[in-house]
Amino acid sequence: MIKIGILGLGRIAGHHVKAILKNKKIKIVAACDLNFIKRDSFSKKHRVKCYSHYDLMLRAHPEIDIVAIMSPSGMHFEHALKILNKFQKHLIIEKPTTLRTSNLKKIFKTAEKLKRKIYPVYQNRNNKCVIKLKEEINRGKLGKIKIANLTLRWCRPQRYYNLAEWRGTFSHDGGAATQQGIHYLDLLRYLAGDLKNVLCKMKTYGAQIEVEDTAIGIFDLNSGGVGSFEITTSARPRDFEATISLIGSKGVAKIGGLASNKLLEFSPEPKLCKKFSEKISDAYGLGHYKIYNDVYLDFTNKKSYPLKKEDCIKTIQLLNSLYISSEKNKRVAINSCNDSVKLGRRNLKISKIYK
């Protein structure tokens, strides 16, 4: 039985909890959150002890094997590093794993030194249509990818950013590319292959925040293909689509729906579209169930966790390259990018709240 401690009881925690409860080989031992109401509600509902700080939780429950980090994005690095060094726990880390590339590399290096595991979360890789499309691409059904496109049109009004002080900040949140687009930037890499360079323009249209709610850009693929992306949370009045289309030398594929949960087009074999599309109730999808099964299999040395260190780092490096391109107002080579000047910059006032 794997014993889990939860750090952070925000909205995303509910999806993790559902996945854990479905897996009889994993158990929630304790949880922590700064908010008393969240702690009290969670404790009564799930009959586990809750604490105001992860330090208290881990001191009281040394039996915890893995800590699932779901704190504000800008705190992932600090929380992960402290839990690794002080308590030597394995970690599940929600997206974005960290805001800065250098910080992510440091976490992995520390974990390797301590012989601990890091499990990044990008649950949309587990969508039925994504799994099938990846299989078909690997089999050569689309041929060489010539053109790739990402379109994310979601809605995040001002009230969303007003929910907490960290939201809408460069230090602890990031904008549409970091919080919403990261899933689909990861899928773009996963399906089309690594990007060679990117030219990105960022704007803010729909809310009074310091970060972007719109990122538009073009890129070259390492394979020789080209592509474009449109990532925005300024669409009104609701979320519309998360679509990735690929044009290969042998055919065309398109996944879409609210969260890339539908296979909309697969020209080599159109009948696959209905079979490999699924209904979801919200943009989080159903991928967390497989993530926790993958964690169990890796933790018990039965099967390696599918998202490797290098793969995770490349996604965060791609994310930072968008900001760096926008900051420098020029096309940048992704392999030469590390950290954005703005994304993940220090803000001690906010960090002090969530330490």
CATH T-level topology of the largest domain: Dihydrodipicolinate Reductase, domain 2
How many beta-strand elements? Answer: 14
Subunit arrangement of the protein: single chain
Give the name of the CATH superfamily of the largest domain.
Dihydrodipicolinate Reductase, domain 2
Helix content: 25-40%
Main beta sheet: 8 strands, mixed
Strand content: 15-25%
The secondary structure category is alpha/beta
> Spans with pLDDT under 50 lasting ≥5 residues?
none
What is the level-2 CATH architecture name of the largest domain? 2-Layer Sandwich
Question: Which CATH class of the largest domain is shown?
Answer: Alpha Beta
Number of helices: 12
Terminal Cα separation, in Å?
A: 30 Å
Gyration radius (Cα, Å) is: 20 Å
**Total individual domains:** 2
Assign an overall shape.
Answer: globular
**Helix/strand order, N-terminal first:** EHEHEHEHEHEHEHHEEEEEEHHHEH
Question: In which order are the strands of the major sheet placed?
Answer: 13-12-11-7-10-9-8-14
Mean pLDDT: 97
Plain-language structure description:
With 355 residues, this protein is an alpha/beta fold. The chain folds into 2 domains: 2-123, NAD(P)-binding Rossmann-like Domain (Rossmann fold, 3-Layer(aba) Sandwich), CATH 3.40.50; 127-282 and 289-336, Dihydrodipicolinate Reductase, domain 2. The protein has 12 helices and 14 strands. α4 (76-87) packs parallel to α5 and α5 packs antiparallel against α11. The longest helix has 20 residues, at 309-328. The two termini are 30 Å apart.
